[in-house]
Amino acid sequence: xxxxxxxxxxxxxxxxxxxxxxxxxxxxxxxxxxxxxxxxxxxxxxxxxxxxxxxxxxxxxxxxxxxxxxxxxxxxxxxxxxxxxxxxxxxxxxxxxxxxxxxxxxxxxxxxxxxxxxxxxxxxxxxxxxxxxxxxxxxxxxxxxxxxxxxxxxxxxxxxxxxxxxxxxxxxxxxxxxxxxxxxxxxxxxxxxxxxxxxxxxxxxxxxxxxxxxxxxxxxxxxxxxxxxxxxxxxxx
Length: 237
Fold this sequence. Notes:
Layout: E1 2-10, H1 11-15, H2 19-38, E2 42-47, E3 55-60, E4 63-68, E5 76-85, H3 89-96, E6 106-117, E7 126-135, H4 142-161, E8 165-171, E9 178-183, E10 186-191, E11 199-209, H5 212-222, E12 228-233
Antiparallel strand pairs: 1-5, 1-6, 2-5, 3-4, 3-12, 6-8, 6-9, 7-11, 7-12, 8-11, 9-10
């Protein structure tokens, strides 16, 4: 079973870190990644650029409206993720506890559903994450859900044919999440997402494009049935 470990970070605190502190966190992530790979649990991972570089696309009637910034205003924002294989949610939480958490951050553990990891060549120069924003009060009909799945599949084929598809995944609703925080040196696990809001990340595509403008054009096609989508550049390591 696949789980997404969504790393929530306080960007102001992260930006204030001295080089030695940042190097230590990077080294801890490298060690964590090696352990995941050695255990055969790693599916994919990405570090996202700061939310000030995000663009949120919302529909106003039938017109897509692009707004600078992330979809939710919060001190804690999504800073990156690991997609892992685990036998159970409990095992996924144990992996989350191994991540380099600080007092001002958290890890949201969410079961993942359908999706794909591309193994072919990627031709474009920069990766972007398109996060689909759902609303807990909006219930899609069964036919609308399958129509969105079919459309995403067709767009995935188009992206792959152009060397622009990297990965995709839909996520279980935020009610299925667990959040891991570090308090006084101890891991505290609570049910639910890291922030209480009607809107939540419902799934994502990672795509490779030559520009943010191109990525936005794909995002507008991909946001089928979503309240909005957040487009964020992936940090190229």
